Amino acid sequence: MKLLDISQLFDQFGQAMYRYLTVKLGSPDDAEDALQEVFCRLVKHSFRLRLVRDLRAFAFRIARNEANRFLQRKIPGKQAAQPGADFAESLRRTYSGPDGLSEQAAAAALAQIPGEQREVIILKIFEGLSFREIAAVSGQSINTVASRYRYGIEKIRGLMEGGE
Amino acid sequence: MKHERDVEELLKRFSPRPAPLGLKELTIQAAGQKIRESRLLTPGWRWIFATSLVLLAFSALADWQISALEQNRLSALLDLPGEKALSPEKQADKEAAELLANLPDLDAASKKLLRRAFLDEERAATQSGQSARRFTEGIHEY
Q1: Fewer CB atoms inside 10 Å of the end CB: C or N, chain A?
Q2: CB B15 to CB A95 under 8 A?
Q3: Are A60 and A116 within one domain?
Q4: Are residues A38 and A100 in the same domain?
């Protein structure tokens, strides 16, 4: 893969992957390191890129795998689990809400829901991926992904209303 | 359901903050550096590898040439059928002449019969590819 291709790939997905990695890893520095690894892998698998139908889903899948590897190296023996407090902070650093209050409330609620549901909501709402793409990224069925999304939204609503 | 929509609408109003300046350049540069570092064949090793390949090819070629030369020399020394092998007729004539030199009193019919027997034997040996056996056995007798 030429340097120009990497540059184009970054223009297409680089920023979105950086945001996703920042939220998933809870640290902009870790996200930068992981993003470099993601691009290394993309270059190494460049021969496959021509065969990939959905390049965005493929790129996010590599980013997700890299984030999980990164977290497993950091916290050996634990599956990619995101600490809540770090998440709320990293979310506010990555995305800005309509106003301070709702931003804080949404971030706090998102931090409290299970990681799988949170990941689907971030990819769906914040990054605009379709359920099909999220299913390809996470290796789950579309129904599972849609269910996680629905349960996650319900939990956020409950948390924001103070019901749970 | 309405509340669910409200939550979705609220989350959709979130917008991404800009990434740090120079992230693209830094990422591409660092990824390129990592790829260069992880390459199995560094430029130095690449030269060593290429030189080794050339030497290996050269030695294989030389070995083949030397073997062919040695084979020819051995064939010539042992008079084995090689490129310059005699035809069965000539070989039979030669052998018959050697034997008849020691049998001066043999009549013409017997000489012809003997030559014929040599020729048959030589042809059969040529067809079965065993013409060298007799010579090898002959050598071992000495």
Answers
A1: C
A2: yes
A3: no
A4: no
